[in-house]
Design brief:
alpha/beta, 3 helices, 4-stranded parallel sheet
Length: 127
Amino acid sequence: MLSGIHFLLTYDCTNECDHCFLQCRPNAGGTFTIAQLRDVFDEIGKIKSIDNVYFEGGEPFLYYQLMLEGIKMAREKGLKAGIVTNSYWATSVEDAELWLAPLKDLQIDNIGFSADEYHRSEKLDDP
């Protein structure tokens, strides 16, 4: 039974990972529009078993406002919402808090971080 939908919000990404089977990379293009999101949410409403959606890509935070609108649509339909990100935007605690605050207000259910040496071109610092 289908219980969730994963939106590949865009193929654009800040990284170009060898293992990416979707061929996501910088300037890849292929981004949902707000009208397309509305259309998909109308169709999702017809499938009663779906209770969650995820926004990923590429890097969904590259289209931050579109991602937020998609999450709002999900919440209005009573769906759980999640995100998968490489967290390129979290360059400091202060920056991360700024980017994440609207997600807290939208009561995001889950956020997955692909922030390891397989998802970055530079070596990560040890904590």
